[in-house]
Amino acid sequence: MATVKVCNLTKKFGNKIAVDHLSFKVSDGEFFCILGPPGAGKTTILRMIAGLEKPDEGEIYIDEQLVNDVLPADRDIAMTFQSLALYPQWTVYDNIAFPLRLRKYPADEIDKKVKEVASLLKITHLLNRTPVLASGGEKQRIAVARALVRSPKVLLLDEPLSNIDALLRLEMRGELKRLQTELKQTIIYATPDQLEAMSMADRIAVMNAGKLQQIGTPDEVYNKPANKFVASYIGSPTINFIDCTLTEKNGHIILDAGEFTLDLTNFESVLGKELYGQEMLMGIRPENVQVSKERAKNAIEGKVVLVEPLGRMTVTHIVINNILLQAICPEDFRAEYGSKVWVKFDMSRLHLFDKNTEKAII
Amino acid sequence: MQNKPVSWYKRPEKFALLLIIPLQIIMNLVGLFPLIAEIYVSFTDWSPTSGEWYLARFIGLENYYRVFFRDRLFWEAIGRTLFLTVICVFTEFLLGLGLALLFTDNFFGKRFFTSAILLPMMVVPAATGYMFFMMFQKDGPVNAILSLITGQSIKVDWFVHGDTAMFTIYLADVWQWTPFMFLLMLSGLLALPQDPINAAKVLGASRLQVFRHVILPMMKPLIAIALLLRGIEAFKMFDAAYIMTHGGPGTATQTVSMYMLEIGFRAWRLGYVAAEALLIVLAMLLFAWFIVRPIFLKR
Amino acid sequence: MELSKGEKLELEELTKYFGNFCAVDHLTLTVQPGEFLCLLGPSGCGKTTTLNMIAGLLEPTYGRILIGGRDVTYLPPKERKVGLVFQSYAVFTHMTVYENLAFGLKIRKLTKEEIDKKVKQVAHILQLEDVLHVKGGNLNLDQTQRTALGRALIIEPAFFLLDEPLSNLDPALRAVMRVKLKQLQKELSQTVVYVTHDQLEAMSMADRIAVMNAGKLQQIGTPDEVYNKPANKFVANFIGSPTMNFIDCSLAEKNGHIILDAGDFTLDVTRFGEILKKETCGPEVIMGIRPEHIQVSREPVKNAIKGKVALVEPLGTETILTMRVGGKEIKTLLLGTYRASIGEELYLIPNMDRLHIIDKKTEKVVV
Amino acid sequence: MDLRTQKKIVTVLRYAILIPVTVILLFPIYWMFTTSLKPPEEWTPTPTNPRIIPTRITLDNYVFLFAPFGVMETFAQFRETIHMPLANSLILSGSATVLALIIGTCAAYAMSRYKAGGEFAPFQLLMFRMFPPIAIIVPIMILYSALKWLDTAHGMIVFYTVVNMPFVIWLMKSFFDDIPKDIDEAAMLDGCSPPQVFFKVILPLVKPGIAVTFLFIFIMCWSDFLGALVLTYRYWFTLPIALSKYQGLFGYLYGPMAATGVIAAVPCMVIGIIIQKYLVRGFTFGAVKR
Predict the structure, then answer these.
(1) Which domains does chain C have, with CATH numbers?
(2) Which domains are present in chain B?
(3) Residue of B nearest to A76 (CA)
(4) Number of C-beta neighbours around residue D77 at 10 A
(5) Could you please report the per-residue DSSP string of A129-176?
(6) CATH 1.10.3720.10 fits D83-283, yes or no
(7) ipTM of the complex
(8) pTM, 2 dp
(9) Beta strand A211-216 with C216-221: parallel, antiparallel or unpaired?
(10) What is the rounded distance in angstroms from the CA atom of residue D6 to the CA atom of residue B215?
(11) Interchain pair B22, D103: CB under 8 A
(12) Which of residues 60-89 of D touch B (CB under 8 A)?
């Protein structure tokens, strides 16, 4: 078990900056997720920690030791690849035993360890087969078993669930999390899937275009997104954004979206005078939009364009002139295409972003 | 962990170097050094019968001057080779593509027909030469079969006339290399994405329209590579043709390779041939760099 | 130009064998003009084969296909006028958007002016005017998709066949395109057969859903019907995410009450007595309940099932709790963020109105 | 037109084209094979009988080539055995192929994984293969006459190794490129040093590729004509040269000549059919895979 620390890590490929002055620290036994869309630099970070890629700048510490110049074989790190990279010419047993054999473990100890990890991952029945014929989920387990067998200091997982179908993914998600809790293994997990990150991670680092956007617990990144990117990337259905400006009228702070206005006087403490007249982006999650078929006080009129009955809830798409909103309604909510509805926002869950810097204000 | 000494050959860069050094040695020994010698020799009148190459008389640019202004046979051979190359490759391409189109879906005997069509390209070219030499003899099977079909006694002496001799060379090349084009075109056709083809069908296109508007444009890059590779190979044309005609009658079927063999290794004017070889290498280098490389690297 | 309205599509006993393998098995269904029908099923269930037969790319082994009442079973694709959009979009990469759109018309030998007029009109509807002269290979996903749609729309098809058209898009764009596609279909009142393996997509867009598995039609109905009244275990399992909890149980009668015995807990299902008696073949049944239909309480409640928290997955909008009850695992889905620690004891309250009982032998949903 | 009628027409057309084409393509090979089995009186067709099907089959033509007595005594003064060229072909092709494969495989791995030799190294090799062989032989002739390597085994082996090196590199590189780099990296993280990655993990994985390359290079060496024509004269000439030499000596003895042709052609045809799937890859330097 170990800690990992990276400072000012930077990597360029030609002119493209893949990772830009990144710093973070993963503590012992933590499940740390790196979340971001394709091209955010997630894989590059893992590869640099593993030693497969040389950083252009910055330092990597494993257990407080600088490892920039240590060969990958000597870092005592395990990694699973997106392509899994199992050795197709060997049996599953030999695949898992390979790292131990290279380290010259005695045969009986290898045997014991391989069987132990195989039963932990429920692949004992596969040991004498080649991995080529295994199913997607099984291959995934074999790759994890091979990584875990020598109890590495840090386990790096690169989008391990991206190649398996949705149902199995849900199951594997739970299993991986349970495994980690049991073994107290330090894990750095890269994924583009916010649901995976939210459900498994102790902390999430949200990345975009090589830059760190926010680090925090799942609760923090969901409820207190640091900027527009984080707010839009996390949560499904995605958060609604509405262009608006901040103004003052008769001592009230008013958010003007053109089609409607909201009174933000309650947020006086964070909304300094210098923000008045500025262009803003209001963010509200679909579950914080209440929809009613009856006209109500302070409610905004809109038109239904699509009702998505998802079973456990209904996602309703509403237009207010040219603003498109998604709202989560109770599961039995139904409305005709084009019918009128009235919308209210949960003001305590409102987010406000500066339109230029995209940083969160509220 | 970090201060453990690492054996030098385990460093990736060093290991890579170790792997590639044998190649460098052998390619430079047999490639680079002789090239330098050749450049020198091309400025002399060296002939192995007259002594060692470094003792030969230095004659400056005379060899090059002769190539350009005094050697009609050389340029005729070039023209002839280019002509053969163009018509052979063109025929092979049309036949190969046509045949490949018949193999895009499954039918009874597909494996047999594929293997049968591929067989000619696996015959050693020298053997092909002898095969066609036998077939086109005056008393050979081709004349016999033609007689049988036409009912008249046909006794064409194929190798005695320049035109008919050229024709047999053309036939031999087409026979041997159409299978290669077929194989290339077939692998191209099989690798095509099926969706655009089906899309065109559903939009109402007939088979011919699908071929013209969808398949052909999608095959373009592969066709370019196929024509290039085959063209380069055809320009080297030697083995079969040499066995069939030895360049004759006279010089009527002499290709560039045959001509250079004649001058260099029968008349032993190696200094002069060195100059010719260098010119061809130079032409090929330019061709490779500006035409082949862009097409090849696109893949 | 008045764009044509959609026509009716009927499949009668449509069957396709590949060798001995039956890909589509006696499929009969009718798509009404202007209807949005989803063909939903896992990969390999025969939906793509069905689609290829409708488009005329595959010959059926048996059965009939009727478009607007006309038998087209063995007609070549040209004479069917089907608007097919592929999963890969299959836009001709070597042609510009304009040429792509014009392709179907050029084939039909329309004059240059007619083609130009129609292309401009369709380009306007699909907002492709700006990219008309861009090569198909240089478009972004969204434009590619619209080009594929336009190319199909321009030949005034009898109906549309869409083969997983959204599966290549990222989730955010997918949500937007779902809305746009549905809007377009409503405005042009086109008949659409939409093939997908994504139950969420089917639920959100379809007027009716036809669920297929292993070449056979499992159920056809509105999204509400397939969600609330699944016909069999396959449909119950395939629709809804996270999937329905299935627990092996046996039925027993005690003191006039019918008891559903799962070993670790029992439920009183006397209220379903009549149906149960009539429809089940034996006491062996499977209890099915969706995670969203189980409430959780920290205090003991009557009829509640005691369990231990095995896993908490906070997803932001909702939280999935995996509970361990004896040797079984039951998933529950709670709206919002629910905090619980692993090992904590909680009480599960199933919503008895939403409980399903499935016969173990036939896998039919009884309740 | 009905889908089913269309299908029938296509089927009929397909066979109407394929059958004659196949017959024409196979005829020269058929003729050589049958001639090698015909007695002298059937070697040439007559105006009335094209002699497409031999009436009597004999192995005399082969015996004539291998054993210098007993058969076809009328032609005794032309007799040349083919023991030597056959052995030469086997020795030279075999050794050159092994040597080229050892050097080329290592270098191809270095190029595939480490971009060793720079980005253009593989392409330079390809260009080398583009020149007409005669242009390459001239400088080699200069070198060999200086080294006294003409008409020697080692000279020919080195020559074949060098001229076929581009094929080895491009083919093997394409096989290495087919293996995801992730496998190398996984092995490194599992604790392999770079040499261990190559020898323990990757090399066993490309075994089929090595086999294909071996066979392909073998037929390339075996088929060579021009190289042996210029660089050998007395001791180390190969089968194709024998074919040409004997053509001058007993060119119109079609039977024995056809037998020589068969002996030269058969190994390549057998190997060619075995590696059919990979021929495209070989001839296009790995650019077109199938």
Answers:
(1) 9-238 (3.40.50.300), 245-359 (2.40.50.140)
(2) 51-298 (1.10.3720.10)
(3) B1
(4) 8
(5) S-GGGS-HHHHHHHHHHHHHTT--SEEEEESTTTTS-HHHHHHHHHHH
(6) yes
(7) 0.84
(8) 0.86
(9) unpaired
(10) 20
(11) yes
(12) none
